[in-house]
């Protein structure tokens, strides 16, 4: 998978001060009712320093200093803390064996204070934190090493009416993507709330961004080589992914999606990153991929089988990333981005089905790679984290032989080549789509 380096972000000043609820651009206030955002920001910076202590360079330091830096080497996770609390235990101190550093011959035990825990905040606190800096463009690269990356705990994200049966569901080829829209009785409209959201956000639509599949015959090795081309909007540690799904919600008080696009915090987008190519179809994508042949041409629509939204959208409640950013040419006001750490998979068959969708120029739609946008001091918050920071998201090991066999099954459903004696068969994909030659 091709990788492009993102741009470096700039560290936020430690003296950044929060804002009031009435004037989010003013830093000077003495009101007791204003959230005390400065300590919040400072606590988030302290979290960063604790993480940096893990990778302290022991070279060029004396033994006493090395032992001092070893303390805090490991951290207690949010999940561990909750487990301890459920047993009625207080997690204060624990002993652990230190890592043997350069020029330290004996392994010593040190008492380690429990590292800083995720900071408990409210949705109002989060809003004030995000308003300490100017807005920026989305999408972005997400890195756990980013200077303004912090852990917080708050109320869980809530999903409502996802089991409500819609009056209608429609799949549309917009020439840029595939979009799902629906109609529900007013009282049964699906919506999300809680977490960082100050009010209810009503469902607007689901759309997808995808890459491609390349299969090329290697004449020297006399076998096919399979390449999965990425198409996600966001990147994790500068890695792009095969597919990204967006569930778009608009603020209920705005009245409509179009009105919400013109309002501050009018839109919230829930992001699912596909990190795995599998043999088995993703059931959340099946209603789409089995209907794609009906909307292959641009600006066409087709009714999907009536089914509740929870058959198209997996839910989660904790362990997600939030940041704010606008979309140039689409929504110039801040969008609340909610990115789950739960992996989302797609089968090779389904990915190839997405590649059959055509744009207005008669070309297969794929998402071209573009540079992610600089954060410029914007904070990224990890809400209710449930695991260590080894990585934000993981690929699952894939049996390429099995995947290639699955691709052969895909080819059987396509029209065979007129030249059966042709030795080289290529499934050209990448940024411009796919077709059999």
TrEMBL record:
Domain Alpha-carbonic anhydrase span(s) in chain numbering: 117-384
Assigned EC number: 4.2.1.1
CDD domains xref list: alpha_CA (cd00326)
Keyword terms of this UniProt record: Lyase, Metal-binding, Zinc
Molecular function per GO: carbonate dehydratase activity; zinc ion binding
Composition bias type Basic and acidic residues, residue spans: 75-88
Region of interest called Disordered, as start-end residue ranges on this chain: 1-35, 49-99, 410-437
Enzyme class: lyase
Database matches in InterPro entries: CA_dom, CA_dom_sf, Carbonic_anhydrase_a-class, Carbonic_anhydrase_a-class_CS
SUPFAM superfamilies per the UniProt record, alphabetical: Carbonic anhydrase
One Gene Ontology cellular component: cytoplasm
Names of required cofactors: Zn(2+)
Low complexity: bias regions: 15-29
One Pfam match: Carb_anhydrase
Catalytic activity: hydrogencarbonate + H(+) = CO2 + H2O
Sections of the chain in a coiled coil: none
Family classification: Belongs to the alpha-carbonic anhydrase family.
Described function: Reversible hydration of carbon dioxide.
Protein name: Carbonic anhydrase
UniProt organism field: Rhynocoris fuscipes
């Amino acid at each position: 998978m091709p990788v492009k380096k993102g741009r470096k972000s700039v560290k936020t000043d430690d003296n950044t001060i929060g804002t009031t609820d009435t004037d989010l651009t003013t830093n000077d206030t003495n009101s007791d009712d204003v959230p005390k955002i400065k300590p919040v920001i400072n606590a988030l910076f302290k979290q960063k320093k604790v993480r940096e202590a893990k990778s302290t360079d022991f070279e060029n330091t004396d033994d006493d200093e090395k032992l001092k830096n070893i303390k805090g080497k490991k951290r207690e996770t949010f999940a561990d803390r909750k487990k301890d609390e459920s047993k009625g235990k207080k997690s204060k101190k624990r002993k652990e064996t230190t890592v043997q550093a350069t020029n330290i011959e004996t392994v010593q035990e040190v008492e380690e204070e429990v590292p800083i825990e995720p900071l408990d905040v409210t949705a109002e606190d989060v809003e004030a934190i995000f308003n300490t800096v100017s807005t920026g463009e989305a999408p972005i690269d997400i890195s756990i090493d980013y200077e303004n990356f912090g852990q917080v705990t708050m109320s869980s994200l809530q999903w409502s009416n996802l089991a409500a049966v819609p009056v209608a569901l429609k799949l549309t080829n917009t020439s840029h993507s595939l979009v799902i829209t629906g109609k529900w009785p007013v009282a049964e409209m699906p919506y999300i709330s809680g977490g960082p959201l100050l009010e209810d956000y009503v469902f607007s639509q689901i759309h997808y961004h995808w890459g491609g599949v390349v299969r090329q015959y290697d004449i020297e090795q006399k076998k096919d080589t399979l390449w999965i081309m990425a198409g996600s909007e966001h990147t994790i540690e500068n890695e792009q992914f095969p597919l990204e799904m967006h569930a778009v919600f608009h603020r209920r008080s705005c009245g409509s999606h179009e009105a919400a696009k013109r309002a501050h915090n009018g839109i919230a987008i829930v992001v699912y990153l596909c990190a795995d190519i599998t043999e088995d179809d993703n059931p959340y994508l099946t209603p789409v991929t089995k209907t794609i042949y009906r909307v292959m041409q641009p600006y066409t629509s087709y009714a999907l089988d009536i089914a509740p939204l929870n058959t198209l959208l997996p839910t989660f409640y904790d362990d997600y990333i939030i940041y704010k950013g606008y979309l140039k040419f689409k929504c110039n006001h801040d969008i609340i981005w909610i990115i789950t750490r739960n992996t989302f998979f797609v089968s090779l068959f389904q990915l190839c089905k997405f590649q059959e969708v055509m744009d207005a120029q008669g070309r297969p739609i794929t998402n071209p790679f573009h540079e992610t946008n600089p954060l410029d001091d914007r904070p990224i918050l990890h809400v209710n984290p449930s695991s260590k920071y080894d990585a934000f998201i993981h690929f699952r090991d894939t049996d390429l032989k099995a995947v290639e066999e699955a691709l052969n099954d895909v080819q059987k459903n396509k029209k065979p080549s007129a030249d059966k004696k042709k030795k080289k068969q290529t499934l050209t994909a990448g940024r411009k789509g796919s077709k059999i030659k």
